[in-house]
Structure formats: structure tokens, C-alpha cells
């Protein structure tokens, strides 16, 4: 029986989704050899991440995230919106959609626009050991990894996966394709990292972001990266109470609206990161036996 999949994407960040909730044997897709065969854009079906849904006792599903290089990781914001949308299509009257990942339990909420989802991405990890980075530093101002043209100023945090945000005058000019791999693998990041180069708009209402993703390379959008960028910009005071701790993160594939009211700032969700944006389903298909092996 051929294995079915859905091709979904969030702002151009694209996913092969395999639903193993009724057949746990399909979790075999997570094996690195099979995962990389599927994600390969030349010889496979092609995607940034492979997403596997599994049955879960304390959530509507478990979501496993495998990067294009076969590495399994803890969080994927764009995929979380896609799976949240899928769960609401299955249960339209559910007040929320819950997804368990390696990083924790995520709650998704419907928006007025049926193609949009809001996700409570939980609390960012702000301590050096939470990111993680290799030594005790102030994660808001890290000089250690600033090795690249124009990179002098980095802030780090975890969204269930490690992120480095480089604030620069003009992120369009950063040669991310050339320097992304070395930054991802910099010794300062013992679990590697996702790298964003960002420029805050003059009116403080938005942030332009380009991203090199751990285990995948440059993508059109990164949900957890947009969250990390907004958290680090708010921590630095580039966006604040006047903007209701909300900013728009503009990526190559489109924008996400992120709210992060820091602990003690008031508000029912203070300390949590809320991400709102589109999700799309492109098509469904069957995996050729040659790729499943
Ligand atoms: N490359 C990331 C996983 C996917 C994150 C991204 N696609 C998102 O939307 O958050 C990592 O290794 O942590």
C-alpha cells in the first residue's frame, strides 16, 4: 500500500506531512536515510522539513520535525500553523488545537480568516544554557559568533530550538549563502543554530528578516526564527509597550505577526510568544516505493 503524504507550507517554508496517527509503522519515515531521500529536491519529493504526525495521549497529535539533513529537532513554527490548520479542518468546533512536540505542548487558535492560525509558542529560553550556547554570556548581547561581514551584534534565545539574531543596518547586503553554514556550525552553538539577519524598520513597526535554517539552509520563512527575532528585538527595546509588544516580521516568503509581552509587563499571555500567520496545503500524493525503500 503506497504511503500517502500532504505537501503543506507556511509562507514558502515547505513540508512533506506523513500522518502516522493510525499506522505507527509510517513513523519509519523519520529514519535519516529515508527522511533525506524524501526531502531531497533533486531526487526526492523535496521540502525544507519532513513532518510526521503521531498519536498522542495528552494532545490532539504529536508532531515530529526532521530537517532536510535528517536531523530531528524540537520546534517548527510554520509547520505548527499547518498542522493546527489540519486539526481544525478535522475538528472545526474545537476551541483550540493542541500539538505535542519535543519542545513542549503548543496550542493553536483559529483566526477570522480560515487560512490564518495563531499559535501560542510558549516561553522563549533566554538563559545561555537554554539556547544553548557554549559558555555563560548575556544572551542579549553576544559578540562570540559575530564572524561575518557586517556582523557585530547578536542576540540569542531558544524557541524550543536555538536561534541567533544578528541585527544589521541592511540585512539585504549580508552574504548569507556564503556565511550561513559556518555560523550554523560555530563552536559557540553546541547544538548548531538557526541564523537570522534582521533590520528593524525606522518606524519600529516591522522587522525585515532573512534566515539560514539549521539542517536546511536558506528558506523563504522560519516561524521560530521570526518569534526569536521579535523576542530579541523586544528584549532590546526596539519594540515595546507602545506597540503592544507586537511586531510584523517580514521574510522572503511573507510576514508573521508576533506578540511577546515580557514577564511582568502585564497581559494574560505575558511571557509567551504568540505567532499569527498563514498556512497552505498544496497537494496530496503517494510516496513512490523507490523513495520508501
Ligand atoms: N531548522 C529548524 C527547524 C525548522 C524551523 C523552521 N522551519 C520554523 O518554521 O520554525 C531547526 O533545526 O531548529
Summary of the model, kept short:
The protein is of the alpha+beta class and 293 residues long.
Instruction: State the name of the first-level CATH class of the largest domain.
Output: Alpha Beta
**Secondary-structure element string:** EEHEEEHEEEEEHEEEHEEEEH
Shape: globular
* Computed Rg: 18 Å
- Low-pLDDT segments, ≥5 res: none
Domains (count): 2
Total of helices:
5
Tell me about this structure.
The protein is 16% helix and 35% strand. With 293 residues, it is an alpha+beta fold. It folds into 2 domains: 3-119 and 280-292, Roll (Diaminopimelate Epimerase, Chain A, domain 1); 154-271, Roll (Diaminopimelate Epimerase, Chain A, domain 1), CATH 3.10.310. It has a 17-stranded mixed sheet that branches. The longest helix is centred in the N-terminal third of the chain and has 14 residues, at 77-90. It is globular, with a radius of gyration of 18 Å. The model has no long low-confidence stretch (mean pLDDT 96). Bound molecules: 2,6-diaminopimelic acid. Residues 13, 48-49, 65, 67, 73, 76-78, 161, 194, 213-216, 222-224 line the site of 2,6-diaminopimelic acid (API).
Amino acid at each position: 500500500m503506497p504511503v500517502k503524504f500532504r505537501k503543506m507550507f507556511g509562507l514558502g517554508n515547505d513540508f512533506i506531512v506523513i500522518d502516522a496517527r493510525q499506522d505507527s509503522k509510517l513513523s519509519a519515515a523519520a529514519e535519516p536515510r529515508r527522511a533525506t531521500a524524501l526531502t531531497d529536491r533533486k531526487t526526492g519529493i523535496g521540502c525544507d522539513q519532513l513532518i510526521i504526525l503521531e498519536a498522542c495521549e495528552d494532545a490532539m497529535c504529536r508532531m515530529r520535525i526532521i530537517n532536510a539533513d535528517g536531523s530531528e529537532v524540537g520546534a517548527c513554527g510554520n509547520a505548527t500553523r499547518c498542522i493546527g490548520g489540519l486539526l481544525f479542518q478535522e475538528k472545526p468546533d474545537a476551541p483550540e488545537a493542541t500539538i505535542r512536540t519535543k519542545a513542549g505542548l503548543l496550542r493553536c487558535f483559529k483566526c477570522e480568516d480560515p487560512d490564518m492560525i495563531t499559535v501560542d509558542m510558549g516561553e522563549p529560553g533566554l538563559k545561555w544554557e537554554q539556547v544553548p550556547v557554549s559558555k555563560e554570556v548575556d544572551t542579549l548581547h553576544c559578540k562570540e559568533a559575530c564572524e561575518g561581514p557586517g556582523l557585530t551584534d547578536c542576540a540569542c534565545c531558544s524557541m524550543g530550538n536555538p536561534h541567533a539574531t544578528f541585527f544589521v543596518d541592511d540585512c539585504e547586503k549580508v552574504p548569507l549563502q556564503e556565511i550561513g553554514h559556518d555560523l550554523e556550525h560555530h563552536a559557540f552553538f553546541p547544538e548548531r543554530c538557526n541564523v537570522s539577519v534582521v533590520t528593524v524598520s525606522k518606524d519600529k513597526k516591522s522587522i525585515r528578516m532573512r534566515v539560514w535554517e539549521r539542517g536546511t539552509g536558506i528558506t523563504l520563512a522560519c516561524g521560530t526564527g521570526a518569534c526569536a527575532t521579535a523576542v530579541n528585538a523586544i528584549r532590546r527595546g526596539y519594540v515595546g509597550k507602545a506597540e503592544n509588544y507586537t511586531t510584523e516580521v517580514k521574510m522572503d516568503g511573507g510576514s508573521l505577526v508576533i506578540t511577546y509581552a515580557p514577564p511582568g509587563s502585564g497581559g494574560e499571555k505575558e511571557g509567551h510568544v504568540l505567532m499569527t500567520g498563514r498556512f497552505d496545503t498544496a497537494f496530496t500524493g503517494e510516496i513512490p516505493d523507490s523513495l520508501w525503500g
